[in-house]
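ERR on first pass: missing label on line 2. Operator R.T. fixed the label and resubmitted. Corrected input:
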Amino acid sequence: MVTAKKLVTRARLEGLVITLVALGYIWQVRNIPALFQMPGVPGPAAFPTLLGFALGVVGVWRLLRGAPAEEQAPDGEDVVEVRREAAAGVGARARGWLAAHGRFCGLWIVVLGYFVFMPELGFPLGSALALAAMGRLLGERRWPVVVGGAVVVTAVLHLAFAKGLGVRLPLGVLSFLGK
Amino acid sequence: MLDHLLNGFATALQPMNLAIAFLGSIIGTVIGVLPGLGPTATIAMLLPLVFTMSPVAAMIMLTSIYYGAMYGGSTTSILVNIPGESASVITTIDGHKMAKQGRAGAALAIAAIGSFIAGTLAVMVLTIVGKPVAGLSLKFGPAEFFSLMLFGLATVASLAGRKISKALVTTVVGLMIATVGIDLVSGAPRFTFGNPFLSDGIDFIVVAMGVFALAEVVTTAREIWAGTQPGVVKADKVWLSWKDFTYSLPAILRGSFFGFLVGMLPGAGATLSTFIAYNVEKRLAKHPERYGTGDIRGVANPESANNAASGASLIPLLSLGIPGGGATAVMLGALMMLDITPGPLMFEKHGALLWALIASMYVGNAILVVLNWPLVNVFARIMAVPARFLMPIVLVICTVGVWSISQSSVDLVCTAFAGLVGYYMRRHGWPVEPLVLGLILGGRMESSYRQALIISKGSHGIFLEKPISLALLLAAVAFLVAPPILARLRRTRVVAAPVHA
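pass 2 clean. output:
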């Protein structure tokens, strides 16, 4: 009997995502306006249509077939990790997951937050906060080093890029200082 | 021809010009070594420096900055696994592994030496056969170009080995990203969702910083937490041993050959040459399994191909006025700034200036080797900085690199998204390089595809009717199909073989 666990594999989920991306892409291709298109000559939608179908075919193939045999072979790092996780007990695994994934999620929040909010916060404030938070998350326990390092590195980078190379860095909430 | 070249060297070696080349190389290297700031961004930032210079001095300055920045780009590939520019994407595969093994110095040194040897060979070949082979590049029409790009993508996808289906997906996704923006032929907006910041398309740096830099930062963080991070990596040797050099020399020569061959095709560029040269090198190797594990030939080969291609791309630039890649596009800009239009009569009309330019490219390469005796030591020490300090700084510098492209928060959001996807890809064995090459080649590939179909009035048969195009397509299919078939045959043979206890 085929169990749900065997049916829903990562490869199949990836196949589903790829197929959905391809469908969304092909849907968007339909919105491309055909400007100055001569009859018999490929327009701006021709190449994207080709790509959309190519991705769709691979996606459906992956969805139906799952991971090809070649991909299922031992994969270095992942396999070691799976074995390590399997070797640990349930409680240890749960504690390990929380310890590892809590910081992991925190790091992504800091990194993505920095990328999204840096223009509004400004380079000096946004970078100093991101550097301090990342330094702390990556294991630096000394607060003076975390804060001092973040401030000094931000100042040096701001001076080097904004003054030295003329890159227009956003000042954000500190823009009154630039006036 | 040789007289002209010697005159060119006489100009390039004047003390003032030599000083300019030296200064340009240093500035280019120092800025190019910052992740996210590739040669194009470096040149754009430093362009005001050359406005007041004489034409020859300006050209020497620009080429030196360019070569310095290229070397800086390779440096970030090797040290922090972040390619500074598209041509050094392939260098990350073996270069960063070498750095992690404490061989950053050797990797940086072979990058400089390989580039120098390739540059020397390219100038020699350019001098001897430059003019006669210029006509050859005219044999490449849109159909041949499309097939060449497809061949390039196939070689990269085949690098993924048993993950070839994943590589095909990432290649197509890369090509899809390249379709974002205003269509240059019809002016129709595609996948811009009404956002003007997407009209210009998505820059290579935006995606590369996400899939390489962001993914690297998070991967390193996980290694730190898991206690598997090697910590401070001390460089064993800061320079190259004679054994390393002789071991790499054949790879350098083959890289130079393929680099020159692909580089002289107009529009092909150095990036494609590095991918093709690396793949061919791996297939020719006695122990191909060593590639990707920190083999020095995996650095020597693409770095040589890259530089040979830059030299060879002068052929279509000077004969047809078509830049082959970043280096020649910069030079085209410089030439136009000086009111010189490249074309078939350039050698006759502006011979002295052109030979000075060719000579200055060579001098720039030589200066980089001299410069790198002390700099390799300095750069290799970056690996000694604990990752918990280095990675946050790398992330902030990458952000500045992305921001400097067009001061757009849309770019930053795209980088963040690319980072998430890149991390997933890395974690689950999806190759990143085909995605990046697809993005780089996508625009040119599409224009060649459409031009070819315009010529053939919509018939796809044109790709099979042209002999060069057909040969390239067959080669692409062979690259994709042969490895899985051979692997299956090998497995069958192992199973069929009797087991001796």
